Amino acid sequence: MKKNFINSTALAAMLLAAACSGDAKKTAADSTGADTAAIVADTAAELKPAGPAPAWAPSMKPEMQVVIEKLASYGDKPIPQLTAVEARKNHTPTDAVMDVMKEHGIAKPAFKVDTMGKDIPVNGGDIHVRVYTPQTGKSSYPVIVYYHGGGFVIANLDVYDASPNALAQMTDAVVVSVAYRLAPENKFPVAHNDAFDAYKWVVANASSIKGDPKKIAVAGESAGGNLAVATAIKARDSKVMLPTAILAVYPVAQSDMNTASYVKNAAAKPLDKPMMAWFVKNYLNSMAEAKDPRISLVSANLKGLPATTIITAEIDPLQSDGMMLADKLKAAGVTVDSKNWDGVTHEFFGMGAVVPQAKEAEQYAADQLKKAFGM
Description:
Layout (H helix, E strand, L loop, with lengths): L9 E4 L1 E2 L19 E2 L24 H12 L10 H4 L5 H11 L6 E2 L1 E10 L2 E10 L6 E7 L14 H10 L2 E6 L10 H16 L5 E11 L1 H15 L8 E4 L10 H5 L8 H11 L24 E8 L3 H13 L4 E10 L10 H18 L2
Parallel strand pairs: 1-2, 7-8, 7-9, 9-10, 10-11, 11-12
Antiparallel strand pairs: 3-4, 5-6, 6-8
Helix pairs in contact: 1-3, 4-10, 5-6
């Protein structure tokens, strides 16, 4: 089934881990009972690629290559050749992961997490959020406000369902996944404003979702990683409670598309350089906005931000973005922990059912957040 293609940016974990269509409003998946199927498994069948590693990624891990081969098999037209509405109908990395699991008899594990959907007010209207609550029976949990990937243009809560599920279960925290409004229907800075408004809503209403109002982190993948950091900056500048921690998975962090990783991974999949240019064109009102510190985080004032964890992938145009951001944060006196995973692509996070490195990254992210929460 065709779903929303995700960005640079997770299957909810491929970015994300990820999976569905362009409408980010409430879906049947918002309210699930006891066990929610997701994309992270303890074990995976041995996966062997059909062909040699691609020329653009000779070091690709075999399990990652199987996912990329499946994604290519759909024959979708490249996103830069499509309108945003058309692009949201393309298959996603999540579709590929789900089909690989079916074809190799890999069962979808049941996360012990309950989900519910909720509409919350933001400037200019309402947006939808999906709340993931661990089934561990506590009266109060830390909270993670999560922003999905998709270049600010494509993907939705379903495409990035695996990452929030994994984080909720592995961190034992409530996760609030935010369906910020997408471009080009909603140009910059709408997604950034929605992200901050959602964070403020969680700060003010944490107790209503079994959240601890003193322990609220922000997290995101790709475009969502950018939103997480930008939200923390705006919270600091607006004198709103600072997040407890930041998790940024292969974040968009600057505007130069001639960095080392952009050059090396110009033709990578599922995210390549032309796709990033397409995202920029669709989200920004003009190219001058690419220098705005909300987009180019490395140009922002980063002092006083909370402990930050940055995850990058070797086969990703945005690898340099994440590394540059880590360096800038450290220079600003921020506590930073960062790790790169070799042999995997953008959107590997959340593919723990089939990609071993993804499961490692998910555990690393959960451990870092638990440490920040004092757990």
